């Protein structure tokens, strides 16, 4: 931590699956404490981009710099000490206890044969406490609800003590209330100095927790900037091909109301 300039920089990157280009020439940067929300329709390449951003997919061209260092030159362990990643789906296969799942977040700091130390256990317990789920610590991970699993996975990532969190649709398994709780957690984590990149299907989420928004469509960012500048009726129409009404609440918060499309089945 501690570096404020060029914290995480993406320069003209492109990616293709077997010659099929998914995106090209994407550039942006984020600083300490930024929350970037990536919006865009299904199949536009958000997950693919996110996998490039954390080094899981190798980009075709361009470069990604973490605190000035090219991601291609960093080992998996070094990337994991900098970036915590929560994928869209993370189905568990073995009934580990929650505390053990969270402790796995310490792997980038341990050698293969090392047992977690007292310090690691302290960090794991603290991660659970930060998210208010220390009551789950002795439960079997496989017995948790989808929402509880999402929070435990986030605790595991916090235990990794990264500077950057990359979250692929972090609210996808959460109920209406827990979605807001998670966005507030994201807000708090950013205020404590973490930088966060997340994808979402809900433009409202950009107003709730982000200071930067990108709208991805047709292989590029069609807009990038502050939520007020980017989440507009015009851009939402361009992105999702529906009419959306933006309404401002008394506290100036904006909400997006999708209008009916009058779609009819041709039976
Ligand atoms: N492993 C793969 N091999 C080939 N094509 C893929 C692969 N993974 C994804 N794709 C294709 O790449 C495109 C982008 O997929 P991606 O999952 O990145 O989109 P997305 O914006 O995250 O979608 P959604 O919002 O539906 O989750 C899609 O056309 C998809 O079919």
UniProtKB/TrEMBL annotation:
Signal peptide: none
Domain ABC transporter: from-to ranges: 8-243
GO-annotated molecular function: ATP binding; ATP hydrolysis activity
Keyword line: ATP-binding, Nucleotide-binding, Transport
Highest taxon of the lineage: Archaea
Acetylation keyword on record: no
Pfam families: ABC_tran
Entry-linked PANTHER family: IRON COMPOUNDS ABC TRANSPORTER, ATP-BINDING PROTEIN, METAL TRANSPORT SYSTEM ATP-BINDING PROTEIN TM_0124-RELATED
Name this protein carries in UniProt: Iron complex transport system ATP-binding protein
Organism, as annotated: Methanobrevibacter gottschalkii DSM 11977
């Amino acid at each position: 931590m501690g570096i404020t300039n060029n914290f995480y920089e993406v320069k003209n990157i492109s990616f293709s699956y077997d010659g099929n280009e998914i995106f090209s020439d994407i550039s942006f940067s984020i600083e300490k404490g930024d929350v970037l929300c990536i919006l865009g329709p299904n199949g536009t390449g958000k997950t693919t981009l996110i996998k490039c951003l954390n080094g899981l997919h190798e980009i075709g061209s361009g470069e990604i710099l973490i605190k000035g260092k090219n991601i291609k030159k960093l080992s998996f362990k070094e990337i994991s000490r900098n970036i915590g990643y929560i994928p869209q789906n993370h189905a568990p296969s073995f009934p580990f206890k929650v505390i053990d799942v969270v402790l796995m977040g310490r792997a980038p700091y341990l050698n293969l044969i090392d047992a977690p130390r007292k310090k690691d256990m302290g960090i794991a317990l603290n991660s659970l406490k930060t998210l208010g789920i220390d009551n789950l610590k002795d439960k079997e991970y496989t017995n948790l609800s989808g929402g509880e699993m999402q929070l435990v996975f986030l605790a595991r990532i916090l235990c990794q003590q990264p500077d950057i969190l990359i979250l692929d649709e972090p609210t996808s398994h959460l109920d209406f209330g827990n979605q807001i709780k998670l966005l507030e957690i994201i807000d708090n984590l950013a205020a404590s100095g973490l930088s966060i990149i997340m994808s979402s299907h809900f433009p409202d989420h950009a107003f709730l927790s982000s200071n930067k928004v990108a709208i991805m469509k047709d292989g590029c960012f069609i807009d990038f900037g502050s939520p007020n500048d980017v989440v507009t009726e015009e851009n939402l129409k361009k992105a999702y091909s529906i009419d959306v009404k933006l309404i401002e609440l008394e506290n100036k918060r904006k909400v997006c109301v999708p209008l009916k499309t009058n779609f009819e089945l041709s039976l």
